[in-house]
């Protein structure tokens, strides 16, 4: 009998590879078919792991079969990737079970004749180990071969798209790029933030400080029991859990919400510079709105906006679990807001390439191309222009992304300021942010988090004001 998680993982990977769904959607579609929570967890681990290491796995497939992975049938390609991943990275699973299930999966698929090849390839890896991956450059940096060797090592051995690695190599150098790709290939931790009012006796509204002074005691006093973790390093009030999987049921129970620390830093910036009537323009799933509310002044009035039905439902569910005054929800397109010079502060956490979140979402590595950056920048610029139109006189706009690339961030803002000389950049170094966030601020007064510097996903935020 084929293990249910392995069977489901093969189907998920084939669907993602065919472009029918992204990884998150494919997993959400597959989870209901697995009754056992352990199978669902294993499915997620296997499918995510294969996507994380896909380029290195394909290098091995080519070395072992002398064929390009793209030339293999989809079910064979997915099965080989899954089998190689388990033999190399999920070694607690018996090799015999990996090989036998892979062969049975192919036998029951549309290309039964490939079962013998799959069996031979995987058994060879069991006997001899996987093919050697490219190694660090062996020639001096001024040798013409150095760049090719560096790119092959960083892209193939660390499973990142070559076009993106080349950009990072040019901007940051080989040591920083190596640290970055290694960071992306480590399992993502889970950072949780107690919902306002849980365990603190306070609503967290208008506190001007983190809503929870001791996050561990707040969670312990709620529904978590004893948790193992460490306080967040830059943004006060969160806890990084040692075992996020065990914590997730409690997150769903409503005592806390999960949010990456870099994402939380964006909310702190928006809340700190915020005043008056405040709009979170792209608010779903709602974590930033909750965090913002805790850092806004007491007289601020926060609105949360999003557009799609499913995202509105997520937003309502998140906001509805929190104590304190209700945050009204607005449903509108962020490029056509129903406000005219009436918003005092706006956060635009814009849709972006997501290239700063490759550790948390490895699927993004293979779904983005360099050409996508210009398209995202066009939409982002439209959102900013609409946001500026909706701002009241002397209003403030915080623009943020989870992208690593300048086209969506520094270059976009520089072009905007050149074309709109009436705009002024607020220097976040002069704003009353927590001292622990100082190292996240740039010389231009923006917020920038880097995997190779801060050990956080790559996020960006800048605050602008208009006359």
Summarize the topology:
Blueprint: H1 4-17, H2 23-30, H3 37-52, H4 54-65, H5 74-89, H6 95-107, H7 115-128, H8 145-157, H9 162-172, H10 174-184, E1 190-194, H11 215-224, E2 229-231, E3 239-241, H12 244-253, E4 256-258, H13 261-273, E5 277-280, H14 287-295, E6 301-306, H15 309-320, E7 329-331, E8 343-349, H16 364-367, H17 370-390, E9 391-401, H18 410-419, E10 424-426, E11 447-448, H19 451-454, E12 460-465
Helix pairs in contact: 1-2, 1-3, 1-5, 3-5, 4-5, 5-6, 5-7, 6-7, 8-9, 9-10, 13-14
At CATH's second level, what is the architecture of the largest domain?
Answer: 3-Layer(aba) Sandwich
Number of domains: 3
Structural class: alpha/beta
Q: Say how many strands there are.
A: 12
Q: Mind telling me the CATH superfamily name of the largest domain?
A: Vaccinia Virus protein VP39
**Beta-strand percent range:** 5-15%
Tell me the distance between the termini: 69 Å
Write structural notes for this entry.
With 467 residues, the protein is an alpha/beta fold. It folds into three domains: 125 residues, N-utilizing Substance Protein B Homolog, Chain A, CATH 1.10.940.10; 41 residues; 206 residues, Vaccinia Virus protein VP39 (Rossmann fold, 3-Layer(aba) Sandwich). It is 47% helix and 12% strand. The chain is built from 19 helices and twelve strands. Strands 5, 6, 7, 8, 9, 10, 11 and 12 form an eight-stranded mixed sheet that branches. Strands 2-3-1-4 form a four-stranded antiparallel sheet. Strand 2 and strand 3 form a beta hairpin. Helix 8 packs across helix 9. The longest helix is centred in the last third of the chain and has 21 residues. The termini are far apart.
């Amino acid at each position: 009998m084929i293990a249910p998680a392995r069977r489901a993982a093969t189907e998920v990977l084939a669907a993602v590879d065919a472009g029918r769904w992204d990884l998150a959607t494919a997993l959400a579609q597959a989870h209901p078919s697995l009754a056992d929570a352990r199978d669902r967890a294993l499915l997620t681990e296997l499918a995510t792991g294969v996507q994380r290491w896909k380029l290195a796995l394909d290098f091995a497939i080519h070395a072992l079969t002398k064929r390009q992975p793209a030339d293999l049938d989809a079910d064979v390609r997915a099965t080989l990737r899954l089998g190689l991943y388990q033999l190399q990275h999920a070694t607690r699973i018996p090799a015999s079970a990996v090989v036998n299930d892979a062969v049975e999966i192919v036998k029951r698929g549309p290309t039964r004749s490939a079962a013998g090849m799959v069996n031979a390839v995987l058994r060879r890896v069991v006997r001899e180990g996987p093919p050697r991956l490219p190694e660090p450059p062996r020639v001096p940096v001024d040798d013409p071969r150095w760049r090719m060797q560096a790119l092959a090592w960083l892209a193939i051995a660390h499973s990142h798209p070559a076009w993106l690695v080349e950009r990072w190599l040019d901007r940051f150098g080989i040591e920083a790029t190596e640290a970055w790709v290694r960071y992306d290939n480590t399992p993502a931790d889970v950072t949780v933030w107690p919902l306002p009012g849980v365990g603190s006796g306070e609503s967290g509204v208008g506190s001007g400080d983190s809503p929870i002074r001791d996050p561990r005691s707040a969670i312990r006093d709620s529904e978590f029991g004893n948790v193992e973790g460490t306080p967040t390093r830059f943004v006060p009030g969160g806890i990084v859990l040692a075992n996020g999987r065990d914590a997730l049921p409690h997150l769903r129970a409503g005592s806390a919400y999960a949010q990456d620390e870099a994402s939380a830093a964006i909310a702190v910036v928006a809340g700190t510079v915020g005043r008056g009537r405040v709009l979170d323009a792209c608010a779903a799933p709602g974590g930033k709105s909750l965090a913002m509310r805790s850092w806004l002044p007491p007289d601020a009035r926060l609105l949360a906006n999003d557009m799609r039905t499913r995202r509105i439902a997520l937003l309502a569910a998140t906001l509805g679990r929190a104590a304190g005054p209700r945050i009204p929800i607005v449903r509108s397109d962020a490029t056509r807001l129903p406000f005219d010079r009436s918003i005092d502060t706006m956060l635009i956490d814009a849709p972006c390439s997501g290239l700063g979140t490759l550790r948390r979402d490895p699927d993004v590595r293979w779904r983005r191309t360099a050409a996508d950056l210009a398209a995202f920048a066009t939409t982002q610029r439209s959102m900013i222009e609409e946001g500026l139109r909706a701002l009241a006189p002397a209003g403030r706009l915080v623009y943020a992304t989870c992208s690593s690339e300048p086209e969506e961030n520094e270059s976009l803002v520089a072009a905007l300021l050149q074309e709109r000389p009436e705009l002024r950049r607020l220097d976040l170094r002069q704003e009353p942010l927590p001292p622990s966030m100082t190292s996240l601020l740039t010389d231009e007064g923006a917020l920038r988090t880097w995997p190779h510097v801060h050990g956080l996903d790559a996020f960006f935020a800048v605050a602008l004001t208009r006359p």
